[in-house]
Amino acid sequence: MAADEGASFHGPSLADFFPAPILFEGTIFEFNRITLVRIIATAVLVLLFWLASRNARLVPTRGQSLGELAIDFVRSNIAEESLGKELGRKYAPLLIVIFFGVLTMNITGIIPFLNIAGSSVIGLPLIFAIIAYVAFIAAGIKAHHGGGRFLKSQLFPPGVPWPVYILLTPIEFFSTFILRPLTLTVRLMANMLAGHLLLVLCFAATSFFFFEMASALSVVGVVTFAAGFAFTILELFIAFLQAYIFALLTAVYIQLSVEAH
């Protein structure tokens, strides 16, 4: 397939995730497009929940009903389902913040003029993973009344012959204290990064075939546009799914930390 003279296709690259600074270049306060997207997403999330709860009534308004329904979804289907009624209600606020925080940052990837997920660069997924990490360690220490007892419960499972601990304890340490936050971070970032690359590839190809190639090849642009639309729907589903998985795994890790108590 030959392009028109001078026409060239420029696909997406990892450079998309390292945009030029807008303010404070070269400092620790460097401000770029992804940071701006994160601030906008956070402001919109806070605004939506404020609007839903500012005039709470016994007979809820439509906005209040939607807000309560969203919160109840996390409380019932993640917190209480994984942790039980008592513990679930205790950790529901944390899980609600994690779920909607991750979801909001994920969904910016398909919003026009934002067009990149705030969670597609490792910094933000890592922050959420550290929050989950601190939460399940703190829950375990509190449940076992001390850090020593918590470590014993995690690293020395009962009912195992003591020579097995020589092999089992390092594995448990790596799995619990290193692999958990690492997998939370990488899973979220990798999914959102891949989604962005697919969407940009499809819509960049659509623009290329519609406006830069010979008219006979415009039909290929129709195909890439349809693929881009399909991937947009898929990316919306993945945004919800990754938020759900992140919050659910946080709840599971909390449960694993306290269950031996």
UniProtKB/TrEMBL annotation:
Sequence intervals crossing the membrane: 34-52, 91-114, 120-141, 162-182, 188-211, 223-256
GO MF terms held by the record: proton-transporting ATP synthase activity, rotational mechanism
Record keywords, A-Z: ATP synthesis, Cell membrane, CF(0), Hydrogen ion transport, Ion transport, Membrane, Transmembrane, Transmembrane helix, Transport
Annotated compartments: Cell membrane; Membrane
Pfam families documented for this protein: ATP-synt_A
Listed InterPro entries: ATP_synth_F0_asu, ATP_synth_F0_asu_AS, ATP_synth_F0_asu_bact/mt, F0_ATP_A_sf
GO cellular component: plasma membrane; proton-transporting ATP synthase complex
SUPFAM superfamilies given in the database record: F1F0 ATP synthase subunit A
UniProt topology in membrane: Multi-pass membrane protein
Matching CDD domains: ATP-synt_Fo_a_6 (cd00310)
Keyword Membrane tagged: yes
Function as written in the Swiss-Prot or TrEMBL entry: Key component of the proton channel; it plays a direct role in the translocation of protons across the membrane.
Family: Belongs to the ATPase A chain family.
Protein name in UniProt: ATP synthase subunit a
Underlying gene: atpB
